[in-house]
Amino acid sequence: MPVPLMFSSLAARPRRLGLACGAVATGLGIVYLIAAGAPLLYPSVNAAAFGVGAAFVLIAGRARLPTGPVLLALAAALLATSLFGVSADGATRWIALGPLTLQPSLILLPVMVTAFARQPTRLAAAAIAIAAVAMALQPDRAMAGALAAGLAAVAALRPRRETVLVLIISLMAFAAAFVQPDQLPAMPFVERVFYTSFAVHPLAGLAVLASAGVLLLPALLARSATSAAFGAVWLAILFAAALGNYPTPFAGYGASAILGYLISLTALSAGPPSSPA
User: Fold this and answer.
1) Buried b (16+ CB within 10 A) or exposed e, 196-230
2) pTM value?
């Protein structure tokens, strides 16, 4: 198949492409975790998270995108986490499910922004605004920044009152999160992996970089508002992981980013966006 036709075929199936990219990134992350001597539980959890997330994408199939009421429910979950979630060193970002600790913002925000890019209704905008407030309350500079980055892409490609307003709100939330102290130390095999992986072996470091790069392929090949929002959110998450003590998606230990990436694929589409109500 000629290269241009191959790229067109991949861009026309962003969910399948994203699944393939997620599988590659998960595999590369597991290679790093094993090479670095991480506990066996860590690569096992990552592999299980990919299995659950991939099953969700396949089951979702051609299901309807999250609507305004669904996005409101997701935003309420993020707000509840910021008020009643698990706290550590002044941050309240997590929930505990038995022995597993999850970060809801990493799971829910990417799909919320991607769905909003396709259908920027007033109800969806209200949900995004609530999510922005939740990021400021937690506080979480990384996810507040990712939210603002995704909404900047949406506002640039679909300029209208709702998209510009929520972008302004998200920037205010990012500023509020940024001025609050963030004293969480880096967890081994979770944060600062872009740097510690090279101390393990240069090939391990290259595997980590490759796992990050492959995650952005769906956004680079598909040209739509949803793919731009998807790419901006995940690029910002990766950027935050490189700059501070924030989880390194796929390469580091953690189910939340893997689930969030795969779930956000369900809002990707190669077609034109629907007309918002």
Assistant:
1) bbeebeeebbebbeebbebbbbbbebbebbbbbbb
2) 0.92
